[in-house]
Amino acid sequence: MNIRNEHITDLEKIETLTWAAFKNHPSHAPGAEPNEHLIVNRLRENKALALSLVAEDETGIIGHIAFSPVCIAGESSNWFGLAPVSVAPERQGQGIGGKLIEAGLSRLLAQGADGVVLLGEPAYYQRFGFESHVNLTLPGVPAEYFMIQPLKVCSPIPVGEVSFHQSFYG
Hints:
Elements: E1 2-5, H1 11-22, H2 36-45, E2 51-57, E3 60-72, E4 75-87, H3 96-110, E5 115-119, H4 122-125, E6 136-137, E7 146-150, E8 160-163
Parallel strand pairs: 4-5, 6-8
Antiparallel strand pairs: 1-2, 2-3, 3-4, 3-8, 5-7
Helix pairs in contact: 1-2
């Protein structure tokens, strides 16, 4: 498996993969159609896709992960939101998402990012070093599902409410 930056020729495949990965996802209302593929498209259109990686093997693209800038306490920051991470349904549970997460965190650290936030399942994301922290909150979300990972140990964790890019809201 190879993990690389997305190419312009990957966009339709990423959209199809992301839609399929979130079809019938437990976080969606029963029967609701996924919108995560639309979020990725809007992030790209708004030039807010800070890092977009694909995982591919001999069968083609089997995974994707997106990172975008977040604001903290209403101000721009050097923190990024991880969302979404998508794996082809038939390939889920094989560690592809984890490899995308690790590659993304490593690349963001190399680019000088201070940290990453996400909204997700604690049992999954804690294995990658994410945890809830009192300094950063996401309004309307139970604290245990909003997690952070500082990337620079010498940087203090900022304080405030986090807001994802407007692309997440339509």
